[in-house]
UniProtKB/TrEMBL annotation:
Region (Disordered): 1-35
Gene: betB_1
Name recorded for this polypeptide: NAD/NADP-dependent betaine aldehyde dehydrogenase
Listed EC numbers: 1.2.1.8
Compositional bias annotation for Low complexity: 23-35
EC top class named in words: oxidoreductase
Similarity-based family: Belongs to the aldehyde dehydrogenase family.
Amino acid sequence: MAGWSPRMRCSPRSIPRPARCWGTRPTPGSSRPRPAIAAARRAFDTTSWATDVDLRIRCLEQLHQALVAQRDELAALTIAEVGATPALTQGAQLDQPIEIVRYYADLLKGYPLTEDLGNIESRGMQHHRWVEKEAAGVVAAIIAYNYPNQLALAKLRPRWPPAARWCSRAPRTRR
């Protein structure tokens, strides 16, 4: 693994009342996600991360543990940045999104990544059919201000590939 990337340029972030700086945020730009996307592509091409279920479960469990351990700090940041109340951080603003990570770790433990569809006879021959499922991508997203924890952690959810016609927009046709 290559390790951490150097820190990119950041801008100060302040709380409107009282007017004081409480941290920095990355300076936005279209080039920001490119290194992460390239790293994900390399990992997909050169490692077994997309098919190593135990590794993915372990990573999700570690992420969940880290979020739980930093829960109070994350709540303070959410209150300061978003203007959420402490009560909202106990639900949709923080605690429920943290549980999304736990949910997907638990779901993956029993999720069938290989599904045997059995044999079928076609044109006088037997054909064995099965479905293989694996991770297929990386998300580079702009997270809205109103529920940032939920929006960021919900990106962990499974998504069907856009090539699956029954779940994506139909291609435009010429008239």
